[in-house]
TrEMBL record:
This is Phosphatidylglycerol--prolipoprotein diacylglyceryl transferase. Catalyzes the transfer of the diacylglyceryl group from phosphatidylglycerol to the sulfhydryl group of the N-terminal cysteine of a prolipoprotein, the first step in the formation of mature lipoproteins. The keyword Transmembrane applies. GO terms for molecular function: phosphatidylglycerol-prolipoprotein diacylglyceryl transferase activity. It comes from Lactiplantibacillus fabifermentans DSM 21115.
């Protein structure tokens, strides 16, 4: 148990022996908002609400399992000695990148089974996913995890943060960098950016809203991960999330360039809304 000063209670309420954690409440709230926005955008793009609901029903458990397994695998030295804690996901300890990998696999398989264009579905989901990530980081805040290096009280006050947030950043006898907050703000800015640009005519080709999300998120994650003290490490040398961020950023930008060059060899392509566009016009 972490030693803290004026920390917030991570338990939202108790129902007899059942404890409802703020972590779960915040994640569930993010999911509900994300699904509502995805259904609305999906209807605009010709995707049936039932297809989105069915996909979410499949994606949620696999995403959660993948996020937890990713974390457990890279912390196996601990969990191999404490196997009973592997299922204690309510105490935190999930990896967003693991969840995204699991979700992407489900989306591809589901869309192929329902004959829904994979890139179109990913474009619909991308802005809502990064919004959910931004909200979900506040679950880390309540659990006092995903924090950064030791800092000073004066530094936190200089950020003009409310006192209750500063108090929550007092962890293990010292004030910490609120890296959860940095990433949350970055994610929510990404959500605003994608929401305000995704319908601009000619700006995105199909699949590029999703690729822009990948580039945006991985770019910000690289820097916030570098400030954290609880990073998952590979061989105690490489921060796994930073390495993966570099691969995803370069890969998403490279894929956009490659797809656009390829499309110049074809007269027709689908724009971001799924409409045919003539490159000669």
């Amino acid at each position: 148990m972490k030693t803290v000063l004026g920390a917030l209670n991570p338990i939202a309420l108790k129902l007899g022996p059942i404890e409802v954690h703020w972590y779960g409440v915040i994640i569930a709230t993010a999911v509900v908002i994300a699904v509502a926005l995805a259904v609305r955008e999906g209807a605009r793009r010709g995707i049936r609400p039932d297809d989105i609901y069915d996909m979410i029903l499949w994606a949620l458990p696999f995403t959660l399992i993948a996020a937890r397994l990713y974390y457990v695998v890279f912390q196996w030295s601990y969990y191999s000695q404490n196997p009973g804690e592997i299922v204690r996901i309510w105490d935190g300890g999930i990896a967003i990148y693991g969840g995204l990998i699991g979700a992407a696999i489900v989306v591809v398989l589901f869309c192929r089974s329902r004959f829904v264009p994979v890139w179109l579905m990913l474009d619909v989901a991308a802005p809502t996913v990064i919004m959910g990530q931004g909200i979900g980081r506040w679950g880390n805040f309540m659990n006092q995890e995903a924090f950064g290096r030791v800092t000073s009280l004066s530094f936190l006050q200089g950020l003009h943060l409310p006192q209750w947030l500063i108090n929550q950043m007092y962890i293990n006898g010292a004030y910490r960098q609120p890296t959860f907050l940095y990433e949350s703000v970055w994610d929510l800015l990404g959500f605003v950016f994608l929401m305000t640009t995704r319908h601009k005519h000619g700006l995105y080709k199909q699949g590029e809203v999703f690729l822009a999300y990948v580039a945006w998120y991985s770019f910000g994650r690289f820097f916030t991960e570098g400030m954290r003290t609880d990073s998952l490490m590979l061989f105690n040398v490489i921060r796994i999330s930073q390495a993966l961020s570099v691969v995803l950023f370069i890969g998403s930008i490279g894929l956009i360039i490659w797809r656009r060059r390829r499309l110049t060899d074809n007269r027709w392509y689908l724009d971001g809304s799924g409409q045919k566009v003539d490159t000669e016009n």
